[in-house]
């Protein structure tokens, strides 16, 4: 239960084996490929003797797969958006595969064929959509002129002009009045919309100037009719084209719906294309020559045997050179990644540590120490049997009935484990969906509640502070042990053990004065606290060249006692959240109880479910956030620094499926 120990792996093999070996390593998902040219290995020998065979980086394959990935994603989006069956579409059921089996299912020529066909359908639908838009626009303005009974192009007269156009409807009366003052102008209204009126004007050519003056005055919008047939005929022909276009679009969508049969293949292809892209990116970190390649990477020590088994399974030993080295001090400080290793109970809580910061490679993993505290705190803040049972059943169903993505599975495991302290604290508080547990059941006297959230508030408050006190002492103890291991003995006293003594001494004083009324207790506490406080002041004096500065540093360090008081106050939230969540649940129950019987067993049922669902969500969110805050601020600050780099192995994307090692996949 700690940071997983790493070794540096070096592989040398023939160039033609590169893809095969990378595929095997990617399938294991346990090796982080290391950049050969930025390692501490002296590559001058290779550059000197193999300069003529060194190969430059070739991005062609990666660009090819990136282009294919983009095409696959566009095709999937297009099918989901435009297919007639998109409403009935179900995503691919998540499954567990090995990378080898996934790669066997990947048929690039077939996928390329699908992509070309889907791209053709997409282009056709795009073309039809554009044409349809044009026809709809044309239909709108033809509808306005369909009652024009002449064809302007065929009715050109020597002595007169035919003018088509529209004006604002508000100017109609004035426009007609001014035109009436021009002799021999024939005006015909063609169409009247809400805001515009469309006219045809017939006038003598020698009256052009007078007519031009009128139409300019009223912003007459001229219209040039482009067809050599009547507007009504053009309008009808346009409608027929539009209907044919709609039918053609419908047929294309029917054809597109047939590609639902290939959706799973396309999803698998997307997953495999991601894997190819990651593999090609890893090749940039290798040293490649015409004859061989060299790969370096970090591997957890406990994965070495499985790697050797996989690589030597179908390959003669003399075709592959592999060696493992312990990391150097420089690599530990600057380069080595961090992977946590904990048992199945603690592992889900690693995400809390990751949210804060991973430990450095040579630092202690705080997860196992934090886990029992977080479990107790979370259970204390939610503290309801019913809510705990919902968490338990929900997590179990999710884990048993579905193949969850790794992140969601860890979340399900997380809440599955936390359901138990929630139920236990629910019994302690005697709360079941906010209702109080009976004190007598079948004539048997029950001990619940052990602590009442209404009568034992002060006891719960003290218990919260006691839990906080224990956690602070634990953090200080861990810090002291770690400093001692690093042979920083004086610092372990001033930064850890002396603080433990000071806090314990003060607690003894308080107990002697308030609980036991014993002067001996008070005296012992004062002595322990005084010696500890003196140690906090003296150690910096011993360490500093300037004794005055050391004294100032020691006194300032002792002032940190106020911070510990603030830390202890922070733990009172355990009481506050636990009582508030239960009180809100009880209030919801009371609200429904006040309803008339008819409403209580109809609307009341829906209401109580909705209200408890809301309270459950808020309680879980509050417990999750505040529980994490107590770890990050009050606990981690006593001994933990963090700053490690996460282990990033060569693996698949796992967007639609979980890729596992061969040994973990059922045939």
Automatic annotation (TrEMBL):
Topology of this chain in the membrane: Multi-pass membrane protein
GO biological process: vacuolar acidification
Entry GO CC: proton-transporting V-type ATPase, V0 domain; vacuolar proton-transporting V-type ATPase complex
Family listed: Belongs to the V-ATPase 116 kDa subunit family.
Annotated keywords: Coiled coil, Ion transport, Membrane, Transmembrane, Transmembrane helix, Transport
Secreted among keywords: no
Compartment(s) where it occurs, according to its Swiss-Prot or TrEMBL record: Membrane
Ranges annotated as spanning the membrane: 373-399, 411-437, 457-476, 497-516, 522-542, 598-621
Protein name, as recorded: V-type ATP synthase subunit I
Residues forming coiled coils: 111-138
Annotated InterPro entries: V-ATPase_116kDa_su (IPR002490)
Single GO MF annotation: ATPase binding
């Amino acid at each position: 239960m700690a940071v997983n120990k790493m070794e540096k792996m070096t592989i040398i093999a023939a160039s033609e084996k590169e893809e095969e070996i990378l595929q095997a390593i990617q399938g294991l998902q346990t090796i982080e490929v290391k950049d050969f040219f930025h390692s501490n290995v002296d590559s001058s020998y290779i550059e000197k003797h193999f300069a003529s065979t060194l190969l430059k980086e070739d991005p062609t394959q990666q660009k090819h797969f990136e282009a294919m990935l983009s095409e696959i994603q566009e095709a999937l989006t297009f099918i989901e958006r435009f297919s007639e069956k998109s409403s009935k579409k179900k995503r691919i059921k998540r499954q567990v595969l090995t990378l080898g089996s996934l790669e066997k299912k990947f048929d690039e020529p077939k996928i390329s064929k699908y992509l070309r066909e889907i791209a053709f359908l997409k282009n056709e639908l795009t073309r039809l959509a554009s044409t349809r838009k044009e026809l709809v626009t044309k239909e709108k303005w033809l509808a306005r002129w369909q009652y024009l009974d002449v064809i302007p192009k065929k009715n050109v007269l020597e002595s007169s002009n035919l003018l088509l156009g529209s004006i604002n409807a508000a100017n109609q009366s004035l426009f007609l009045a001014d035109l009436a003052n021009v002799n021999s102008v024939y005006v015909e209204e063609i169409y009247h919309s809400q805001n515009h009126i469309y006219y045809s004007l017939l006038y003598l050519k020698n009256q052009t100037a007078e007519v031009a003056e009128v139409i300019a005055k009223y912003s007459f919008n001229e219209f040039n009719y482009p067809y050599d047939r009547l507007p009504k005929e053009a309008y009808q022909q346009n409608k027929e084209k539009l209907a044919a276009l709609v039918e053609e679009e419908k047929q294309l969508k029917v054809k597109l719906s047939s590609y639902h049969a290939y959706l799973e293949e396309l999803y698998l292809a997307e997953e495999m294309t991601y894997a190819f892209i990651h593999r090609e990116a890893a090749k940039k970190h290798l040293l490649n020559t015409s004859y061989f390649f060299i790969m370096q990477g970090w591997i957890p020590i406990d994965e070495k045997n499985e790697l050797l088994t996989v690589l030597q399974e179908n390959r003669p030993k003399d075709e592959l050179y592999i060696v493992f080295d312990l990391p150097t001090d420089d690599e530990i400080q600057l380069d080595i990644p961090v992977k946590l290793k904990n048992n199945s109970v603690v592992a889900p809580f690693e995400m809390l540590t990751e949210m804060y910061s991973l430990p450095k490679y040579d630092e202690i993993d705080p997860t196992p120490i934090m886990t029992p505290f977080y479990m107790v705190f979370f259970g204390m803040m939610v503290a309801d049997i019913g809510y705990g049972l919902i968490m338990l059943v929900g997590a179990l169903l999710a884990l048993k009935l579905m193949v969850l993505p790794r992140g969601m599975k860890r979340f399900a495991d997380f809440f599955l484990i936390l359901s138990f302290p929630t139920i236990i604290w629910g019994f302690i508080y005697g709360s079941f969906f906010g209702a109080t547990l009976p004190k007598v059941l079948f004539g048997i006297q029950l001990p619940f509640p052990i602590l009442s959230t209404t009568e034992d508030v002060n006891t719960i408050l003290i218990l919260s502070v006691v839990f906080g006190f224990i956690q602070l002492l634990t953090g200080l103890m861990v810090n002291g042990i770690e400093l001692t291991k690093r042979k920083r003995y004086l610092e372990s006293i001033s930064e850890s053990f002396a603080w433990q003594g000071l806090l314990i001494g003060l607690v003894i004083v308080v107990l002697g004065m308030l609980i036991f009324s014993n002067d001996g207790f008070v005296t012992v506490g004062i002595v322990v606290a005084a010696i500890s406080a003196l140690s906090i002041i003296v150690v910096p004096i011993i360490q500093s060249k300037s004794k005055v500065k050391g004294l100032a540093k020691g006194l300032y360090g002792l002032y940190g006692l106020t911070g510990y008081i603030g830390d202890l106050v922070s733990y009172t939230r355990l009481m506050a959240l636990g009582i508030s969540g239960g009180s809100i649940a009880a209030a919801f129950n009371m609200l429904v109880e006040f309803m008339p019987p008819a409403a209580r067993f109809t609307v009341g049922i829906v209401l109580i479910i909705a209200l408890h669902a809301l309270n459950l969500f808020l309680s879980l969110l509050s417990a999750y956030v505040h529980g994490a805050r107590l770890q990050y601020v009050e606990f981690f600050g006593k001994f933990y620094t963090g700053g490690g780099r996460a282990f990033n192995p060569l693996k698949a994307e796992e967007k639609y499926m979980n890729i596992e090692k061969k040994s973990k996949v059922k045939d």
